[in-house]
Amino acid sequence: MRITLLGTGTSLPDTKRVQSGILVEQGDRSFLFDIGSGVLHRFVETGTDVKTLDSVFISHLHVDHSSDFIALYQTLWLSAFDKILHLYAPPPAREWFRMLNEVIYPYLRGKVNVEVTELKERDIVKTGLLTVMCRKTQHGIMDSRAFRVEQGGRSVVISGDTAPCKEVIELATGADILIHECNWLDGRHSEGVHTSPSQLAEVVRKARPKKLIIVHAFPEVVFNIQKVISTIGADQGTEVVLGEDMMTMVL
User: Fold this and answer.
1) To pair with 173 at 20 to 30 A between CA atoms, which of 110, 111, 225, 233?
2) For the chain, what are the domain ranges?
3) Distance CA 28, CA 51 (A)
């Protein structure tokens, strides 16, 4: 299983970090987890053929996690994509996709075969040799999911956007890699939306992943990353790194 961070940024435009997106490759199939602005271009940069795409998993429908699906949809048509693309996302994914066809792409109806599945609060998707476990997370009023991807006894967990919550800790327990957001520094923020360094330290303490990769970090976090890593990783026994666009790992 090959994992590439396509986008490690936030909703703020950044020359080095596009919005959220992770590519997982297994054999001759590829899978996207989130597809924010800029992710499709990063996907092309990897040299991966769009025709290998099997599934797109969207953690939630905020635009910084979903907007490049609009571009991907037309790209599939222009690339003569001739199989089913599976789209997995929380409700209202079916209505979102229906409106995409109605408002933007009425001419694509029936030309690209997209099968939309709305993810339950606790769900399991098996596709090829991958098993994807899904759990509802805590991200304001949005219906959002985290994912644990398993293959051959190895695992990577993708938090999506979330405040610290037991569901992500459950998914991440004993994982090889935890890819988790750290949106802002410790301070006074809205409750139940994102995760700060001290909160992420508690997630790591409870879940004990082998490696933590920080993503979805606002500039204040990136600028203070050594302090952030020290806060999270002190005496945890978990390797902690800041994710960068196009960073690749193999499990």
Assistant:
1) 225
2) 2-250
3) 10
